Amino acid sequence: xxxxxxxxxxxxxxxxxxxxxxxxxxxxxxxxxxxxxxxxxxxxxxxxxxxxxxxxxxxxxxxxxxxxxxxxxxxxxxxxxxxxxxxxxxxxxxxxxxxxxxxxxxxxxxxxxxxxxxxxxxxxxxxxxxxxxxxxxxxxxxxxxxxxxxxxxxxxxxxxxxxxxxxxxxxxxxxxxxxxxxxxxxxxxxxxxxxxxxxxxxxxxxxxxxxxxxxxxxxxxxxxxxxxxxxxxxxxxxxxxxxxxxxxxxxxxxxxxxxxxxxxxxxxxxxxxxxxxxxxxxxxxxxxxxxxxxxxxxxxxxxxxxxxxxxxxxxxxxxxxxxxxxxxxxxxxxxxxxxxxxxxxxxxxxxxxxxxxxxxxxxxxxxxxxxxxxxxxxxxxxxxxxxxxxxxxxxxxxxxxxxxxxxxxxxxxxxxxxxxxxxxxxxxxxxxxxxxxxxxx
Length: 441
Hints:
The protein is α/β, with parallel strands linked by helices.
């Protein structure tokens, strides 16, 4: 499961060997193109945060529908002084009419009486009995009907990510539902008999660092993490496999189900071709992540499993460091499978390269272009592969921080972004930036 050169590539269904790999930029484009955009559906407002607008957001009516007070104070008509007569509450359906020289108390958001020419703020008002004085510029502190939008006006185009402000806008114009492209579903499988999920690594045992990363990466990319409610059935290939299958949280699948705990969000599988093939066949998600089986060693079963399921390889090997032995395949029913290298930083790079691109497409979004930045001290290039280098961002540009080996997470954990360093013969003084927090659109 090392981040080695890797030379097993695919030409459609079945495998063939090739010494080269697709470029890093081409891999992103291929992954984005391979995914199918989700179908637009109508959902209530409380179920669309993080989704993408499938149709434009159009206001059904004017906002505000009537002239409203923009401040607490007094609605007045004409020049002062005015005689105060009554008070308009926020929920008043009929605020009445003001005659010239009249005023009425009012609260923010209340409909102003007919004839109102201005609102005098409470802090500017001088009241003596029923006599009011204060500044009253025509139209001041009044929100006019239709000031924010008119009936039938398009407020946002399709393709906008629904966030709290969008939800508030939809509610403000009177909508109860939005037509959206739902968030993709993503499942995570981690393979490796050598992995442990508590305590430190030791001889022959490696603490799993990839499993804890995946849920956060998935949700930050704008997808929904699929829990493995059928974990016992998915991993059952005889009693021994059930005993060997461990959850990321620790313990056996049987223990997890017997104690009534929630289904695992990341499922650990033994190094078994049968177990992996069954999990891929039975896991329902738009994208399935498989960690630790993407290389070509004796314990790496992803490619044989995909071939047995008739999968079509989209990308199989990427010319980048780290993360070379990553792969993306499409199953016959359209589900995508992403093979992540077994080394933690290499797995992170693979997710940010292929996983984010595929998720972005399913969300109905374009593949974002990466911004350019100077690297004042320079950074060594790889002669044939794109380098992904942890950097901090300063006023002068990107500064590499080291600890960027394929098995290391110290660098990425301290970094602001990854510098995408193009192949070349020497050093680069500029690079592009790949966000470590994907999905912020």
